[in-house]
Design a protein that fits this description.
The chain is of the alpha+beta class. The protein has a domain at about 35-100 and about 140-230. The protein has helices at about 5-30, 55-70, 80-90, 110-115, 120-125, 135-150; strands spanning about 35-45, 50-55, 90-95, 150-160, 165-170, 180-185, 195-200, 205-210, 215-220. A hairpin with a 4-residue loop joins strand 4 and strand 5 (about 165-170). The longest helix has 24 residues, at about 5-30.
Length: about 230
């Protein structure tokens, strides 16, 4: 003897499954991954790297709002191009030459964020009141050295629609044949799971890089790193 369920029961199950599937698909399509994609191309005539970055406008507005403490609208905020340029200069960098070797002890991130103070209470109180002149001079010199190794960033413009923000810029290294590294932390200050893809093109050839929280800086291919085109 077989037990037969009513036909309406199976129709109800099918309807419920369809609704769940549609909701999951809709949610995934709206914001499936936190990824920003940069399309880059070496221009051998201008000796610049032409860049177009695609990311979600809401995430970008959130990043700018956290930095400025003000509400940001990519379409209407008066100085938004300047804010975007400053943000990209800090989060999308092309470094000239080899990166310095990490100092022993704390990680580079900890070294940048944690002051070097004595564990002794009295010494700590004395040292944290004000930085010494030597420390300030050393810090300023290091900052100038780092800035000198960064490729110049030239803002070109932007396009904003309901789904994407497109940012256009150029990076100009002093010598594009020297060793290069890229740091890409776009939106990582907003989203812990943010990952950024960079596609590099020269003619019909392409290479790609993937950045995330644990891998923020990577060697960047120079024009000479691409295979020679057949004549």
């Amino acid at each position: 003897m077989f037990f037969t369920l009513p036909r309406n029961f199976w129709l109800s199950c099918l309807w419920a499954f369809t609704c769940v599937l549609l909701l999951a698909t809709s949610s995934s399509a709206h914001h499936p991954f936190h990824v920003a994609t940069a399309e880059t191309r070496w221009n051998l005539e201008t000796k610049k790297l032409e860049v177009s970055i695609r990311c979600h406008p809401i995430d970008l507005e959130t990043a700018l709002r956290r930095r400025t403490g003000k509400k940001i609208d990519l379409d209407t905020t008066e100085n938004v191009d300047q804010l975007l340029t400053e943000y990209l200069r800090e989060t999308f960098q092309l470094h000239q030459g080899p990166l310095p070797a990490p100092a022993p002890g704390p990680t580079p991130e900890a070294a940048l964020s944690t002051p070097n103070v004595s564990t002794d209470a009295s010494a700590k109180e004395t040292q944290t009141d004000a930085p010494s002149a030597a420390a300030t001079a050393t810090s300023n010199a290091a900052a100038k050295t780092t800035d000198a190794k960064l490729a110049k960033l030239h803002w070109v413009g932007k396009e904003i629609d309901m789904k994407w923000a497109w940012l256009y810029l150029e990076l100009e290294p002093a010598d594009m044949q020297q060793e290069l590294h890229m740091t890409n932390t776009i939106l990582m200050d907003v989203l812990d799971d943010q990952s950024n893809t960079v596609i590099i093109r020269l003619g019909s050839q392409r290479q790609s890089l993937m950045f995330h929280q644990k891998k923020r800086t990577l060697p960047f291919p120079r024009p000479s790193d691409f295979a020679k085109q057949p004549e």
